[in-house]
Amino acid sequence: MALLGSDSAVCAVDGSPKRQRVDDFQNEGSLIGISLDSPNCRQSNVQVELDPKLDATPDAFGKVSRIAVDAAVAFLRRQSCDASSLDLLPDAEQNRRKLYDLLSETACNACNNSALLLGPRGCGKTVVLNRVVDELQEQYPGRICAVWLSGLLHTDDHCALKAIAKQLCAEHDLMFSKSASFEENSQFLTSMLREYSLSHKSVIFVLDDFDLFAQIPKQKLLYNLLNILQSTDSQAAVVGISCRLDADQLLEKRVRSRFSHRKFLFLPPVAPDLKRFFRSALSLPTDSRFPFIEYAEKFNAEVIALLELKEINDIFSEVTNVDLSPKHILDLAFCIICDLDREKGFLSISNFKAAIKNLRRQPKLDSLRDVAVLELYLLVSMKRLEGKDRETYNFTTIFKEYKCLHDTHNTCDLYSQDVCLRAFENLLERQLIAFVDGRNHRNGIEFRSVKLLVSSFEIEEGLKTSPVCPMVLHQWCAHEGFK
């Protein structure tokens, strides 16, 4: 399949089939906007219906070439946000198979089960559970119902049970009563589970941030759900998701005795597996999911060549040294794709460098870049006081340190105490420093203890990027014993 042979091939005689197809795409209201970005087509397995005989090579930058590049960017961005089309990492795939077997027992043999998915944030726990639920609903159509709860949203038992009743009503087109009490919702849940069991249907209760549910006083919701699993009148499973490895230890004794203690641990992936995952996140499919097959093959070849470069490997190592989670890798891939040059149509080293800068962006450093030179002097003075094991300090001691440094080197940046006090207030407003007691009143601020809200590393980086920082200030900051 040729993706656009040459300009002469595209701009053939007006009215020719090729030209007519290009005009049809334009007249149908932006192909990319409709076929790729519409709400109905946001799943990564969407198929774009284009004529496979349409010429479009990435060497010619005509209208059809831009369509191919826009389609690639839209697909890869969607793929980075929704990893359902990507292959799971080996550890996650192993947990998926085990979890599928466990929940299949509930659907097939009416065996009530409970389990916990444990691991750091962004390691793929929710992705694995979503795939398992989708597979079960596909294999047993109409027999699987998933109820999702979040510990961040449903902060008490009444709110959580109300959300369960609301989702079950929506599943079966029943009228939901907002004024129902906790007991009424509890009775409704019991009766619904009994009906589910009689009709050989299963309910999967998913508790995201399970540790937050365990911190609710009396743990009434967890007790009721796990107690239901002990009954033969129900066909259900409870799956908790938590980033705390000791989440099950937070349960009360009566609740813990009803939990099956099945735990699926999601470990950080090893570097080779993570690099293969990164390559797949930046690669285009060469099947019916993406219409421009030849362009996709060349794009993928360029990605493989880039990932072999030492400079790219250094960037990848820098990212994985901070966070090994697949979610962090997908964030990096998203930033890279967003920086792609639409005119060239291929990734370059500059895209990776821009992406790593976006990931490392820190608001405190941005604030330090714009502060005045006097404010930099005060920040360095506070840093030096901390280096002298001063646990507390106020504006008076900070001004003395600043005055001592100036008198030693006789710099031209000498300001009065009133001017320094205004600069000190500016640092408070920028939230680069704060009062130790946490109060915001400004009475006698020159005598109240303060603390730095920026680290020594951030101060040093801020001095490097500041256009007004004098050289002597770099020396004072780098060498605390420098007089």
Task: Give an account of the 3D structure.
There is one protein chain. With 483 residues, the chain is α/β, with parallel strands linked by helices. It has helices at residues 7-10, 17-27, 31-36, 63-81, 90-109, 125-139, 157-171, 182-198, 210-214, 220-228, 253-256, 271-281, 293-307, 310-322, 326-338, 349-359, 363-369, 373-387, 395-409, 417-429, 456-465, 471-478, and strands at 113-118, 144-150, 202-208, 236-242, 263-265, 433-435, 450-452. A 5-stranded parallel beta sheet has the order 2-3-4-1-5, sandwiched between helices. It has a two-stranded antiparallel ribbon with strand order 6-7. The longest helix has 20 residues, at 90-109. The radius of gyration is 30 Å and the shape is flat. The protein starts with 6 loop residues before the first helix and ends in a 5-residue tail after the last helix. Residues 1-64 have low confidence and may be disordered.
Enumerate how many helices there are, as a single number. Answer: 22
Structural class, please? alpha/beta
**Proportion of residues in β-strands:** 5-15%
Taking all Cα atoms into account, the compactness measure Rg is 30 Å
Shape: flat
Helical amount: 40-55%
- In sequence order, what are the helices and strands, one letter per element? HHHHHEHEHHEHHEHEHHHHHHHHHEEHH
Poorly predicted sequence stretches spanning 5 or more consecutive residues:
1-64
Strand order of the largest sheet: 2-3-4-1-5
Termini gap: 72 Å
Number of strands: 7
What are the defining features of this structure?
single chain, 483 residues, alpha/beta, five-stranded parallel beta sheet, two-stranded antiparallel sheet
